[in-house]
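Renewal narrative, Specific Aim 1. Our central claim is that a sequence can be written position by position from structural information alone. The example that follows is taken directly from our test logs and has not been curated for this report. It begins with the structure tokens describing the chain, in the order in which they were read.
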């Protein structure tokens, strides 16, 4: 009986060490495939599209354009954007758990958060209640864009970074009770019963970042007819 238990224990310890090795190995794999990838080296291997063949790793330079217009159902007017992010934050209660001398207690602070905690799960849900967030954050990208007349599936490429949208009467609809607000980083559309400086629980603030069409870009990939596709090689 004791020998059988010892064999099981040794077997469990063995599997534990194997699990640890697999876990550590995953970090090594990530390090060598992601952390050590130098994309500038890959870019140096690319040939300009006019000088390569269909199977080569090629690139083309030009302006990123699209015939599609993007806007949203709330505030953003349709414009010549390749992509936009709508980030919506709500002024809400946030619970923090503290443990001190084997005693547990909770504190509550009202903050601007994009992910609103479900106050039903709070230790004191009746006193600190968050309403439902009425507008969610959103990202939208045109389905098709072109660079130098080559068609580009935007779902298969890494797009350039976006820039904050200047909020004015030409870019967003702020009619009615909506107000424009700002902090050290962003401009917001404020939608609520308080003010941006003194908000109430449930108030919203919305900011937009966009990637405008017409910017100069370089696209790397495999070029087939008039399309840019993902390029793969042995490495």
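The sequence written for that structure reads:
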């Amino acid at each position: 009986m004791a020998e059988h238990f010892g064999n099981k224990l040794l077997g469990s310890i063995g599997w534990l060490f194997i699990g640890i090795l697999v876990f550590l190995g995953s970090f090594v794999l990530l390090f060598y495939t992601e952390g050590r990838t130098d994309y500038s080296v890959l870019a140096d291997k690319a040939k300009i599209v006019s000088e390569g063949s269909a199977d080569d790793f090629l690139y083309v330079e030009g302006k990123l354009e699209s015939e599609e217009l993007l806007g949203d159902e709330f505030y953003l007017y349709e414009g010549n954007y390749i992509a936009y992010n709508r980030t919506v934050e709500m002024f809400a209660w946030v619970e923090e758990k503290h443990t001190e001398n084997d005693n547990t207690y909770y504190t509550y602070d009202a903050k601007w958060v994009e992910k609103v905690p479900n106050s039903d799960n709070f230790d004191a849900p009746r006193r600190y209640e968050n309403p439902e967030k009425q507008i969610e954050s959103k990202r939208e990208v045109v389905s098709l864009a072109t660079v130098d007349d080559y068609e580009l599936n935007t779902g298969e490429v890494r797009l350039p970074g976006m820039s904050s949208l200047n909020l004015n009467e030409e870019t967003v609809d702020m009619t009615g009770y909506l107000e424009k607000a700002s902090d050290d980083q962003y401009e917001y559309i404020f939608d609520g019963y308080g003010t941006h400086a003194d908000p109430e629980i449930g108030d919203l603030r919305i900011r937009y970042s966009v990637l405008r069409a017409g910017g100069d870009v370089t696209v790397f990939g495999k070029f087939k007819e008039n399309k840019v596709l993902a390029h793969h090689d042995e490495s």
